[in-house]
Amino acid sequence: MDQTQPSSLTLNGLTWPRVLSFLSGLGMAAASVLTIRHFFMANYPATIFTGSFCDISAFFNCDSSAFSPIAQVFGVPLGYFGLFMGALVMLGAVIPSPAFERTNKFLSLLNVLGVAGLFLYSVLVMHSLCLLCSGYYLFSILSFVLFWRYGLGRGERGFLARWVRPSFRLLVVFGVVALAGAYGFLLYNDAKKEAQVGQAANIVRQYYELPKVAWPSLISPYWSVKSTERFEDAPIQVVEYADFLCPDCLYLAQQLDQLKKEFAGKINVAVQFFPLEGSCNKVLPAKKANLHPGACEMTFIAAGNLERFPEINDEIWANFRSTRNPEWRRALAKKYGTEGAMADPKVRDLVERIINTGAEYEKTSEGSPAGIRSTPTMIINNRMVIGTLPYQHMKAIFQALVDERQSGGRKFIENWMPPARKKK
Hints:
This protein is of the alpha+beta class and 424 residues long.
């Protein structure tokens, strides 16, 4: 390199730092595309067979991110902004200019600060980390380090001179393009939401095409929603295999909390304990025996007080971010007088019998010999639904079941669909 030439990441020919810069942008873009794809798949499954469920570690879990408040900004998936940043880094490496490099260097600083904030929020607030997001974090850090080590202004004195010298014109152009793309994603996101309403009839049809299964030999006496004394007397009967440390179960709990109000007096929900931890769940295959450490303790705490179980259940889901904290679990047990539940032979026997019902169903995956292999898994009026569904789909199925009970038979599909909203 010519020693009189200023240090630059992209302006000194085809150097390995420039190639690495392009690859870091490519990695950022690829990770963002996968994150966006997961966001739409998790929030808007196309069929009843593609719901989200806990089948991996409670910590390394992308569903927590997909359902979190920061998954989208004003209706735009957060991954879009990562995709745009990755595209700028790649473009800056392909068609470099001093103004482009200075602007990208400034944006890389903002980007890495945003990455640090998202990482801390994920770990400290959500207590989970999405592997797809982590890929973006790593490539962003690589891009930042490259700009720090080789970017224009490296020899300048002062922080502002080194990092805050973007081209105002390029910032305006990038801002306009970014807003246009964000608006496009906003429209697409709104269209996906609207499509959930339109897909309701298809989901109900798919639900009724599911094979019927028997109720578990022991339906849990721990009901989160109770409308009738006999479980089968309610038009809507849900046996929910759940784990109190499962992010997807939290999503389902939030839906059921809303649906129990809309279908008040018509729904029973029995919580069929299924902690994804091998110390109390022998139905799990060995490779999944430690997915959610602490889930067994949480289960026994909830099971230790049958009369107050609905309160305990609600408090657990309302404080989900704290459930992996042993001190919080001990405080919860003390509050409801269930400190000794884990050592109580009667409670242990009942919980074990409830968990073991998961082995009564035919296997649903080659990776597990038992039919119940993940959470949440619902048996809704003798049909098994694995994973979560969007609210509109759950509501459509529940309404179909109520209509069927009231009319003595199924109604036309059109009656299961909510009326389309009129456009202004």
